[in-house]
Structure formats: C-alpha cells, structure tokens
Amino acid sequence: MRYSERDALIPEVPVPSADPVLEATHSRATGGAPAAWTAPLATGPLSARLTLPGSKSLTNRELVLAALADGPSTLRRPLHSRDSALMIEGLRNLGVGIEEIPGDGEFGPDLRVTPGELHGSSIDGGLAGTVMRFLPIVAALALGPTSVDGDPYARKRPMATTIEALRGLGIEVSDDGRGTMPFTLHGTGEVAGGELAIDASASSQFVSGLLLAAPRFRNGLTLRHTGERLPSLPHIRMTIECLAARGVRVEEPEPGVWVVAPQPIRALDVQIEPDLSNAGPFLAAALLAGGTVTVGGWPTETTQVGDELLRILPRLGATVTRDGERVTIDGGVGVRGGAPVRAVDLDLAIGGELAPPIATLLAFADGTSRITGIGHLRGHETDRLAALATEIGRLGGEVVEFDDGLEIRPRPLHGGAWEAYADHRMATAGALAGLVVPEVTVDDIGCTAKTLPEFPELWDRLLDRDPHATRWESLPL
Length: 477
Ligand SMILES: O=C(O)C1=C[C@@H](OP(=O)(O)O)[C@@H](O)[C@H](O)C1
Ligand SMILES: C=C(OP(=O)(O)O)C(=O)O
Fold this sequence. Notes:
The protein is of the alpha/beta class. The chain is built from 13 helices and 23 strands. It has helices at residues 18-29, 56-67, 82-94, 129-140, 160-168, 205-213, 233-245, 280-289, 309-315, 355-362, 384-394, 424-433, 455-463; strands at residues 37-38, 46-50, 73-76, 97-101, 110-114, 122-124, 143-149, 172-174, 183-188, 194-198, 221-225, 250-251, 257-260, 269-271, 291-295, 319-323, 326-330, 345-347, 369-372, 398-402, 405-409, 416-418, 440-442. The strands form six sheets. Strands 2-15-17-16 form a four-stranded mixed β-sheet, covered by helices on one side. A four-stranded mixed β-sheet has the order 4-5-3-14. It has a four-stranded mixed β-sheet with strand order 6-7-9-8. It is globular. It starts with 17 loop residues before the first helix and ends in a 14-residue tail after the last helix. The structure holds shikimate-3-phosphate (S3P) and phosphoenolpyruvate. Residues 128-130, 353, 380-381, 425, 451 line the site of phosphoenolpyruvate (PEP).
C-alpha cells in the first residue's frame, strides 16, 4: 500500500484483497458469531484527515458495464469489499474475465475486466442490492439457467420487480411466487427488449439494473416506471452518466421513462471516486465529538448522493469548507462541549442510504426531528426504520417509526449493546453513537466489510487526536 506525501502522517491500515474479503465476511454474514466491538469514545475534539476507498455504487456499475463492453476495460482505485467481491465472483461465473493489476490506489489493486461469452451459472447476491438487482439482467443475456440467491436476510429484500421485469422481457423464471430470492432464470443467449413497465417504488436499483444492460438488448429498451414514488433518483442519474461515459445515450422523454437504443457499450479506462456515502459517519463524528474531520479526494463534480452531506450537515450545525478536493467539516465544540446538534425536518427520499448516521446524530439534537421519504429503507439490508428505532431506543433514546420515516426525540443516552443486523450502516451508526456515549458495543462490526472493510481501522484513525488540541473534561450527557 502506498500513501501520498499529503497523507504521510496517517498510519497504514492493512489492505484486504477481494477474495479474502469475500471469505472473511461470508461466515459472519451467514451466521458465524462475531465478537462484540466496543465503540471507542472520543476523549476530545477531533482533528482527523482521511481518505476513503472507492464507491460501491460506481465500482459495481463499472464492473457490469465493463463486462458488457466491446473490449477490455480498466477500473482504477475500485472498491474492494464484500459487495464488489460478490459482483466480481458473479460476473466471473457468467464468463467474464476479471483480474487484479497493480494500481496507485491506497486501498488495493486496480481491476482489468475482459468481456467473454456469457453462459448461465449461479449468482450469490450476498446482501448486496446492486448484485441482486443488476446481475440477473446480465444473466438474462447468457445462454443457460442461472440461479440467484443470497444471505438469509437478503431473501427478504424485494425482488419481485426484477423477476417480473425478466418475465416481461420474455425470460422464463422459476421461483416460489413470493417475489424474493432464490429464483432461477433461463437465459436463451439474447434478450429482445422493447417496451417494459415496472414498479420501482421499492428500489431505484430495478431501473439501474435494466438500463445498464439495455444497450445489449436486440431492440434496446423503453422503460416506464409506473409506481407512485421513485427513491434514490441520484443513483439513476449515476447509471445514466456511467452509460454516457461509454457512449450510450439514455433519452428521458418524460419523468419516469427511459429509452435506450441497441448499441455497443464502449470499453473504458475509468477511475472510481471515493465512496461519499461511506463518508457519512466520519463527517457526522465532527458534530458529535467536536473538532474537524477532513476527507481528501472529494470529487468536485459527482453523481454520488453522499455529496448532499455537504448541504445537510450545515443544517445540523456543521461548518463546511472546501479546498479543491479536500472537504473539512467543523463540528465546533461537539455535544459534550455544550453545542447540541440542531433539530431538522429532512426529506431523504433522494438518499435513504444517508439516513442511519443522520438519524443517529439527530438523537443528540436540541429538539425533535423528522426524516421522511425513506419508507423503502424497510427493504434495505434490514428494516432500517425499525432497526434505528430499536437500537437508539435501547440506549435510552426515543424514535417513533411511521410509514415513510422516523421522528427522533432526543433523550439522555446511556451505554448498551447495539445490534447491527448484518447491516454495515447500522454498525457504523452504532460506532457513531458510541463516540460520545460510553460503553456502546456493536455486535458485528465485521459486517462493515460489505462496503468498507477498513472501517474499524479508519475509525481508529479518526480518533487519533491532534496532540495540540485542547483537552477538555468529558461532561455527562
Ligand atoms: O444503485 C445503487 O448503487 C444504490 C441505490 C440505492 O438503492 P435504493 O434505491 O434501493 O435505496 C442506494 O440506497 C443503495 O445503497 C445503492
Ligand atoms: C442500501 C444499501 O445497499 P444495497 O446496495 O445493498 O442496496 C446501502 O449501502 O445503504
């Protein structure tokens, strides 16, 4: 692993390669008993500089597009995590060549992807929405049956729209009619495409999965979303931009309709941006513990919804400054220094994946807050509305669930066991609470390997205090 001069003071963390990550995290995700992790308490204001590994959403889109492209592609500074490892494994099973090549990233090698003739196989979706919703559409282009399954909880995540979309495209699917994994699709080696109507109100990933493969359908695709709401619009924009970078234009004649003509997907040498959604708990930490957190490599233009943190966190009381690709969040003196987080009403429909750290922050606010537009989080890695209400409640907080959101009523919090439900964002939310509440233990910090295997090391790095920062007494909350 290399560090640039800028980061020379930051200690090294071990870099896992893709396959060991898959192996190391599989037992945890499938029932192995992980040891509880005691969240480190901040003993004073933070003064941290960090860089973060590649974006899950960009890495897994670029892997799929590279697999369907007209020649070999290179992914530079990709994410190496369980979700990307599952995507790689699934694509390899279908006949795609993927090899690690040396790169200049801090967090692991680059990837060279060589398209191959696609054949039916098996897909392990793990708990990864992108794998579960993107790869079956790729497998529809393959010849032969492909079985699709995942972790125990992933069998509860909504898949009916993918299954019905496959049928709508003329692909036979064997399933048990519950609209979830497992199922088997029977690829015939080509997809005719044409017109298709789907209800993507449970996840934007249904739209993205279809658009990514649509240029390879014989007649392209005219896709219409028929549901009342469509979450995570920036993720659909990301899909459209990734396609555009490979020469594929997606027409949008009206909201909720996308038209893709049949055409080649160009091979590309692409650099993956750092994962800005994974920056969430690190940036939020500045508001709780006080002090500053600087994240390097923040893109000046991006489709990642994590960029919204730079507009959301100031509403909660943070100051944001930018210096080129460095973003600094100043949280002032933090909650124990007497400056609580400001209560807000937030519609997070565009970026539900940001909700866990924000809801946790708001448990320390100066009044009641509401987060709305996030009903679809019940179909995420776990029912995140229930999980946040339960776990914040377990520490003495009060969170009321309603259909599409949460009302967070701050109360004095105490230590306790925080359950992650195998959900990386629940695990990091527990770490965040434990930054200022003594003795919070997270049952399964290892599940952060889903998108950020380095989380525990990076969290320690966050707490590596600047020796010149003023030490202050910790006050009871
Ligand atoms: O396409 C993607 O990469 C994602 C889309 C979103 O899914 P939903 O629309 O299901 O929320 C997001 O929450 C998820 O983390 C990643
Ligand atoms: C919802 C998420 O993931 P997935 O890609 O598995 O849907 C997430 O990372 O917050």
